[in-house]
């Protein structure tokens, strides 16, 4: 039985959040309990605008990637996009392939099919080289393909690796590796999906088609400090929307107004030389510079205020100080509170608006890409924090506002899914399993063709085939799980209740991950499922908590043909003669698995008094959704709530309870899944209960019902 724990919070902890971010005490307390107290973290819960995502050229090698792709276009090279066969892989491939195709590049795609192993293959490289191909770009894979990329180099085929999986100690000899998990990537958030990386590259490539690409500008702000008889000069150099250099210098004057040092000793002069200079008020800035440098040195300064106000009229006639106070980023980050930072952020916003205003297709493209990025983030169980929240929220918003993009729209029809009330759960439980089914059944090309096909008839046919593959997949998983049930229990017992490991050559290779995940969820232990193809064993591992699956596999020694993945989801393969070696190595390393990983304690977000248990409470869903990895559903407790109605529900299997609780002013509906047997034994209408619950808004036939999902219900002693 789960133990419900509520951590105490103090007024000293929640007051700063209430004051600085205008939060209610309840909302602030929830954030404190979840350890979300810094402005840079709160930003992604309280704001939704995509302008708060990290700039694509923050990647240290992004400019190198763009330049190599532009070179391929200029020289008419053949380019291959090689992706993975899961949702993240096919969306990554679709995003980057489509962008290169729009640019007129001779591009093709390839993903693993049938029993093909994960990652770039020798066969794929040989086939591409035979066509005189010269550049391969991996998406959602490649970081582990050391031998394969060495082979490509031998054939004169260059490889750019773009991946988000955990890198090993030895990296492949690719010409460029772009992976946010590399220590020197430069990217401020490492847990984005492969599709998000493809989107960043696609966005950078679109930016490279504008006059702003590689154009360095300087933003200058001068402040006169009469009290200290000085001028403060602040400058930022920006290239590709990234700050490259900065300078802050004090220029002092004596009591008679003369400079205390030679102008040639000032760093400002060399910093501004040969620069395109912007200032918020150009005429005023020129006047101050003339006072500093005299008439002998002339600076060409452009007026930032008049330029930006053409696209953002709300800033017209405002001072630089007023602009800095309007900055949303400054509200969440102390480092952004200077006047110059405010101007810099405004300039970057202006540049993005300018690009969109001059290219009507860019908004449409961005929306379509964001829908795919949202699917990938949910499918690959990316942590729902930082910019992943922006991706999923904006992806769902795009579905609702513009409808689903080609391919996904046809799949929505097959799944009877509407976009007007679409949620992250709808995507996770319906769309994503269907798309994944194609890859798991060895036919990932169907899912990719669904996203890329320009024929409506072909997309409808592919959507139907994918729907059928998913039905087949569900049946196979159920049969496989039932078949190995006793062996699962035996394995867990033999492995000190720390691990489950099953070797079954009849299990479909594409289903090993799904079965491992189901065992992990049902028994709360890390799980390994291994199948066999020819002379090779292929397996999947799923873990949770503080147990890193890829590090565990790494600790087993030099056994694998290949392996890799995320912290909680990994894949591997080894030759048939290594099976006993593998099993023995696992047994020896079981001691590294912490038994405390077993889930028996759950943290409550708050205890809700009856007068707060009302329809307004459900507004909190908007703040915390999308839920997912590292952002669990809100979990509340209320005491002494009267049960005023109860009924057993379920058409095929009447196992569930539909309840109604009386809070005094409101009657709140609730669902208690799989607990119909408690009615009349532990649960009685008219009695008071302490309840633990999630909040849920159920959309059915266009109607929204706010309801509780009961997790525990015990007689109240209050």
Number of helices: 25
* Biggest pleated sheet: 5 strands, parallel
Q: How many individual β-strands? A: 23
Structural class: alpha/beta
Strand order of the largest sheet: 3-2-4-5-6
The gross shape turns out to be globular
Distance between the termini: 22 Å
Q: Characteristics of this structure?
A:
718 residues, single chain, globular, alpha/beta
Task: Please characterize this protein's 3D structure.
- This protein is α/β, with parallel strands linked by helices.
- The two termini are 22 Å apart.
- Strands 3-2-4-5-6 form a five-stranded parallel sheet, with helices on both faces. A five-stranded mixed sheet has the order 9-8-7-10-11. Strands 12-13-14-16-15 form a five-stranded mixed sheet.
- Helix content is 40%, strand content 21%.
């Amino acid at each position: 039985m789960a133990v419900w724990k509520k951590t105490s919070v103090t007024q000293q902890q929640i007051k700063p959040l209430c004051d600085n971010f205008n939060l209610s005490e309840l909302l602030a307390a929830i954030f404190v309990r979840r350890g979300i107290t810094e402005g840079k973290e709160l930003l992604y819960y309280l704001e939704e605008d995509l302008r708060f995502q990290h700039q694509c050229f923050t990647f240290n090698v992004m400019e190198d990637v763009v330049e190599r792709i532009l070179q391929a276009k200029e020289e008419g090279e053949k380019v291959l996009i090689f992706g993975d066969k899961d949702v993240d892989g096919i969306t990554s491939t679709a995003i980057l392939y489509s962008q290169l195709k729009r640019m007129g590049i001779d591009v093709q795609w390839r993903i693993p099919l049938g029993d093909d192993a994960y990652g770039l293959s020798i066969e794929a490289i040989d086939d591409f080289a035979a066509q005189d191909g010269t550049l391969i770009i991996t998406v959602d894979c490649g970081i582990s393909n050391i031998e394969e990329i060495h082979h490509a180099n031998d054939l004169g085929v260059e490889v750019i690796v773009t991946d988000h999986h955990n890198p090993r100690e030895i990296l492949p000899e690719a010409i460029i590796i772009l992976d946010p998990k590399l220590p020197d990537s430069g990217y401020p958030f490492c847990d984005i999906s492969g599709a998000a990386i493809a989107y960043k590259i696609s966005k950078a490539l679109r930016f490279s088609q504008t006059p702003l690409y590689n154009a360095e500008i300087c933003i200058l702000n001068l402040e006169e400090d009469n009290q200290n008889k000085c001028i403060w000069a602040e400058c930022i150099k920006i290239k590709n929307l990234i700050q490259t250099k900065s300078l802050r210098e004090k220029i002092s004057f004596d009591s008679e107004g003369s400079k205390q040092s030679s102008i040639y000793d000032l760093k400002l002069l060399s910093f501004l030389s040969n620069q395109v200079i912007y200032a918020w008020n150009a005429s005023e800035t020129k006047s101050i510079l003339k006072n500093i440098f005299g008439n002998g040195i002339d600076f060409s300064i452009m007026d930032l205020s008049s330029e930006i106000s053409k696209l953002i009229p709300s800033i017209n006639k405002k001072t630089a100080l007023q602009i800095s106070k309007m900055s949303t980023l400054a509200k969440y980050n102390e480092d952004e509170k200077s006047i110059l930072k405010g101007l810099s952020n405004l300039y970057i916003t202006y540049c993005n608006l300018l690009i969109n205003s001059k290219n009507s297709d860019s908004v449409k493209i961005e929306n379509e890409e964001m829908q795919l990025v949202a699917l990938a983030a949910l499918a690959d169980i990316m942590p729902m924090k930082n910019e992943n929240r922006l991706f999923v929220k904006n992806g769902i918003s795009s579905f609702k506002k513009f409808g689903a993009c080609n391919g996904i729209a046809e799949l929505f029809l097959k799944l009877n899914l509407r976009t007007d009330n679409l949620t992250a759960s709808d995507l996770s439980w319906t769309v994503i399993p269907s798309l994944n089914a194609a890859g798991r059944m060895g036919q990932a090309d169907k899912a990719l063709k669904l996203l890329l096909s320009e024929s409506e008839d072909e997309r409808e046919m592919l959507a139907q085939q994918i729907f059928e593959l998913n039905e087949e997949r569900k049946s196979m998983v159920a049969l496989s799980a039932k078949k190995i049930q006793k062996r699962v229990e035996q394995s867990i017992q033999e492995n000190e209740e720390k691990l489950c490991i099953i070797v079954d050559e009849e299990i479909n290779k594409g289903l090993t991950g799904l079965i491992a995940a189901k065992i992990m969820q049902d028994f709360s232990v890390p799980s390994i499922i291994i199948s066999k193809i020819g002379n090779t064993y292929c397996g999947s591992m799923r873990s949770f908590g503080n147990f890193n699956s890829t590090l565990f596999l790494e600790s087993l020694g030099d056994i694998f043909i290949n392996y890799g993945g995320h912290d909680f989801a990994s894949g591997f393969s080894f030759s048939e003669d290594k099976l006993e070696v593998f099993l023995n190595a696992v047994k020896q390393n079981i001691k590294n698995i912490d038994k405390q990983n077993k889930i028996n304690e759950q943290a409550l977000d708050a205890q809700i008094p009856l007068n707060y248990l009302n329809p307004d409470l459900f507004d909190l869903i908007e703040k915390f959704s999308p839920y997912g990895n590292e952002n669990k559903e809100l979990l509340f407790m209320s005491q002494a709530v009267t049960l005023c109605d109860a009924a057993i529900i379920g058409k095929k299997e009447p196992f569930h309870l539909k309840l109604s609780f009386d809070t005094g002013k409101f009657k709140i509906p609730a669902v208690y899944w799989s607990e119909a047997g408690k009615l009349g034994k532990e649960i009685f209408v008219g009695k008071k209960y302490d309840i633990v619950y999630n909040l849920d808004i159920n959309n059915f036939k266009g109607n929204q019902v706010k309801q509780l999902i009961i997790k525990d219900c015990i007689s109240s002693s209050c």
